[in-house]
Specification:
By secondary structure, this protein is of the alpha+beta class. The chain is built from ten helices and six strands.
Length: 328
């Protein structure tokens, strides 16, 4: 989807030799994020980056996209932590162009940027850093006061959302309690490597070996989680934690997108009784359904691609009912 090099946008055609693959072995390698500041209660520096980003209502704005699972987790936290009136949201168009993530010019569109009036997300990156070189990804947490990107690392944005704004919203729910952090972090690591990123290692593989190195651990971990959920409602017991919210976006896209578009087709989500009930449980939590668009997932992941889908054919797929009750 293109890349900024020294502040100039280059399309995929100009970057073909620099694609996100290691050497010539066909393995997908995810690019690192570059903006790693933190919003904190008093503006002191967080674990990484610089300080100067205190929690304030109306100061920060989130850039996301409906079809991006990494952005989805931040949009989920914006709901469950009651931040919708505190942090604004701009959604990029589900269909990317040769400019990458883009916005509609029409101010009445759902996919308009009312804050910076950008045409493309790469304009936000160069507004923050004129000579930026790197991938242009969502989510982006934008500081409207400093005209700066706070962070484009979803895992860290949700940790900020989890606690930094509690005094403003009054929402004290803690999805990453200190006593459970070692277990949460261990689960997050496993789920990221084999499921969240595993579907991409599978779908973007360019050799049979690379494909199998992605798909086998993916289903091994799904099998483990299926067994785990036989004895508990959520991954760590009776209460939802960060590990659940980080897993959910991938599960919601699984049957509609990854199963067919990324060849993750050993089993469907609905073939796992416990995981299927668990996913419906999370989907039915207040406000979560508003962050989901299954048709966008189906069309977005099956969009035209010279490697995966050269004709841009979108399959006709069944629509599972995520509103079913979930007894187990």
């Amino acid at each position: 989807m293109g890349k900024l090099v020294d502040g100039s946008w280059l399309t995929d055609e100009a970057l073909e030799e620099q694609r996100q693959y290691a050497k010539a072995d066909g393995r997908f390698v995810r690019a690192a994020t570059d903006f790693r500041n933190w919003v904190t209660v008093d503006g002191r520096p967080g674990p990484t980056g610089a300080g100067g980003f205190p929690a304030e209502a109306g100061r920060y704005h989130l850039y996301g996209a409906l079809n991006c699972p990494w952005a989805h987790r931040t949009m989920i936290y914006r709901v469950v932590k009651d931040l919708r009136d505190v942090i604004g949201l701009s959604l990029a168009s589900p269909r990317r162009s040769d400019q990458g993530w883009i916005f509609d010019a029409d101010p009445t569109s759902r996919f308009h940027d009312p804050i910076n009036h950008a045409h493309a997300l790469h304009e936000i990156y160069t507004k923050a850093a004129a000579d930026y070189t790197g991938r242009v990804t969502v989510p982006v947490l934008w500081d409207c006061q400093r005209n700066a990107i706070v962070s484009n690392e979803s895992a860290e944005i949700i940790r900020m959302f989890n606690g930094a704004f509690n005094a403003i919203t009054g929402n004290q729910t803690d999805y990453a309690p200190a006593a459970l952090l070692p277990e949460i972090d261990a689960l997050n690591d496993l789920i990221y490597r084999t499921i969240n990123n595993g579907v991409y290692k599978t779908g973007f593989a360019r050799t049979q070996q690379a494909y199998e190195e992605g798909v086998r651990p993916l289903f091994d971990t799904l099998d483990q989680l299926e067994a785990r959920l036989a004895t508990r409602r959520y991954l760590l017991g009776a209460h939802i934690t960060e590990a659940d919210w980080r897993l959910l976006p991938t599960l919601l896209r699984f049957d509609a997108a990854y199963y067919s578009a990324f060849r993750c087709n050993l089993r469907r989500l609905v073939d796992y009784p416990n995981l299927w009930a668990y996913t419906r449980d999370l989907y039915q939590q207040p406000g979560i359904a508003d962050t989901v668009d299954f048709d966008v997932y189906r069309r977005g992941y099956h969009s035209k691609s010279p490697v995966r889908n050269p004709y841009g054919i979108v399959p006709i797929a069944y629509q599972a009912d995520f509103t079913q009750s979930q007894p187990r």
